[in-house]
Design a protein that fits this description.
Layout lengths: L1 E4 L6 H4 L1 E4 L10 E11 L1 H7 L18 E8 L3 H5 L6 E4 L9 E5 L3 E3 L6 H4 L4 H15 L7 E5 L5 H12 L3 E6 L2 H7 L7 E3 L5 H9 L3 E7 L4 H9 L5 E4 L13 H6 L3 E4 L5 H4 L2 H17 L6 E6 L3 H8 L7 E5 L4
Parallel strand pairs: 8-9, 8-11, 9-10, 11-12, 12-13, 14-15
Antiparallel strand pairs: 1-2, 3-4, 3-6, 3-15, 4-5, 5-7
Helix pairs in contact: 5-6
């Protein structure tokens, strides 16, 4: 099988390589072997390749990626009884290390049957973005976001997570304001957005966000950027407001928060990551999140847009496209090999 791997941290386009590797061994008890069709390139994947989660050096070749879609090739002992899965059945999978390959093995509980009406492009993004959006919305509600007088502010609003979050929030009656990095991105997002869209390229973008709020308090800001953006968002928040940080696109740029401003105004900063989903949620909440994701995939496939699709062999082009400013949607990796 083919797989993408790296042996040391660095810029993804430089350190990733495509290699031939032996097919995976048959699955063990309560496991499933999946032939991967499509997997997404997420910002978190690229941060991991750069070593932003770990120090030192990877312990041998590491295959990135944690979700995707494919077909069941084999089930280990007990797998059929436990899951009801069948060979040839299409499944989405998460969390599974090594999704950027033509095969993965995972515990059966991490393989989710996919309805026929859901395309591979949508199914490959079924878990990480929708679940992250659901986590953010729960945290926003815990932070006293209100339908009557509260506004939810979203940065990097053309991203998959932000678009899903905006749709979820709108469905519950919350007002949203979206911020994107370019006028081009704002022009693309406005026709499909339920709330105002502002470009941070404009020198007066902060004032435009305040105007868009129309006197309502900005109670919560959800931000995957960090860096200097955090200071601007803190200034926009109402006293007692909350900044939900769920990424670090402004790599190596510290969050520009004034500690006295945070203290005197009673602001809160919370980190949200899907890496803690399995640790911090009950089985029922996880089941509800997956059910909601499946419903969104069937009712709003437009929220799972793909900006571009590349074969595994073009991984360098894929990761460059994934970080292109102004793109809308997620970059996908595919394999047509048998």
């Amino acid at each position: 099988m083919r797989r993408v791997s790296y042996e040391h941290f660095g810029e993804p386009a430089d350190v990733l390589r495509v290699e031939d590797a032996p097919d995976l061994q048959p699955p063990g008890a309560h496991e499933v072997l999946i032939r991967v069709a499509t997997s997404p390139v997420h910002p978190g994947d690229l941060a991991g390749i750069r070593g932003r989660y770990d120090g030192g050096k990877p312990a041998g070749p590491t295959v990135p990626g944690f979700e995707g879609v494919g077909t069941v090739q084999a089930l280990g002992p007990g797998g059929v009884v436990e899951s009801g899965l069948k060979v040839g059945q299409r499944v989405a999978f998460f969390p599974v290390q090594g999704a950027w390959a033509e095969q993965v093995v995972t515990p059966v509980q991490f393989a989710i049957p996919v309805p026929d009406a859901v395309s591979d492009a949508v199914a490959s993004q079924l878990m990480i973005n929708p679940i992250t959006a659901a986590m953010l919305l729960r945290e926003a509600e815990n932070a006293a976001l209100t339908v009557d007088n509260g506004v939810l502010l979203l940065t990097a609003a053309g991203s998959g997570v932000a678009r899903l979050l905006a749709a979820m929030a709108t469905a519950r009656g919350y007002a949203t304001i979206s911020v994107v990095r370019s006028a081009e991105g704002a022009a693309r997002l406005r026709p499909v957005s339920d709330g105002p869209v502002v470009s941070s390229d404009d020198t007066d973008w902060v004032a435009k966000v305040r105007d868009a709020a129309e006197g309502r308090q900005i109670r919560v800001a959800c931000d995957p950027i960090g860096g200097a953006m955090a200071a601007s968002l803190a200034g926009l928040l109402a006293d007692g407001g909350t900044l939900l940080a769920y990424g670090g696109l402004a790599a190596n740029e510290p969050m520009g928060l004034d500690s006295m401003d945070v203290t005197s105004r009673g602001l809160s900063v919370r980190g949200v990551t899907i890496g803690r989903w399995l640790l911090n949620t009950t089985l029922q909440v996880r089941a509800d999140d997956i059910s909601a994701a499946l419903q969104l995939a069937q009712e709003r496939p437009d929220l799972f847009a793909a900006s571009a699709t590349y074969d595994l062999g073009r991984i360098a082009d894929a990761v460059k496209e994934a970080e292109r400013s102004g793109k809308t949607g997620t970059v996908l990796l595919t394999s047509s090999a048998s």
